[in-house]
Amino acid sequence: NAGVTQTPKFRVLKTGQSMTLLCAQDMNHEYMYWYRQDPGMGLRLIHYSVGEGTTAKGEVPDGYNVSRLKKQNFLLGLESAAPSQTSVYFCASSVQGAGNIQYFGAGTRLSVL
Amino acid sequence: QQQVKQSPQSLIVQKGGISIINCAYENTAFDYFPWYQQFPGKGPALLIAIRPDVSEKKEGRFTISFNKSAKQFSLHIMDSQPGDSATYFCAAGGTSYGKLTFGQGTILTVHP
Which residues of chain A have a CB within 8 Å of the CB of B104? Predict the structure, then answer.
């Protein structure tokens, strides 16, 4: 049972480039989340989804887009990367929302030069 | 807007000592308070959680103390071990919400 899998694990981008981070979960969870982790800032929610075909903005959504076309996948896109988006990105999933355990992937370390 | 404030940012304790991490929240609608543990290079994992109908929850060496009137909760790690060295995050959420709000994190180092 793989749980939550994130790809890629590392990526270096130049300013203005685009990329997509993929999150896949095999636990049949309804809810999925994208966070970014920065030193001293904790985990900040970017976007989340409460089910297939739905997405909602979190705390820091600007500069990111998401899609949840399939229940098991949640994609995070950066259309025009900026140095401020250098961070470690985590995906998580849960059976439902708050009050249920969130299971995290291992993270994607992104550097934007 | 940061609705959950966590302190200290970093903590160093000796093996066998007690580690204490504190969190304060603002939203009185929150009714679920988990703590997550994160080792270097890994994603966070749930350590222990509490709901406001109890003031304390204990699981092994880990205890959450909850003060509803003060809107504060804390994690106590008894008999701290080097293997407890990690980053700890508190979080808060409401069962009517679809998400958690995390604190800033505490880097715990336990010296042998």
Answer: 40-42
State what percent of residues in chain B have pLDDT above 70.
Answer: 96
In angstroms, the Cα distances linking A63 to A16, A55, B47, B107 are 11, 15, 32, 29
Chain A residues touching residue B31 (CB < 8 angstroms): 99
What is the identity of the amino acid at A47? Answer: H
Q: How many helices (H) and strands (E) does chain A have?
A: 0, 11
- Residue B1 reports pLDDT greater than 80: no
B chain contacts of residue A50, beta-carbon cutoff 8 Å: 98
| Radius of gyration, CA atoms only, chain A | 13
Q: Cα–Cα distance between A37 and A44 in angstroms, integer? A: 7
**What pLDDT digit, counting tens, does each position of B59-74 carry?**
999 999 999 999 999 9
**CB nearest B105 (choices: A42, A45, A96):** A42
Residues 6+ apart with CB under 8 A from A38: A44, A87, A88
- Nearest CB to A42; choose among B31, B46, B102: B102
* Nearest to A83, CA basis, from A63, A57, A61: A63
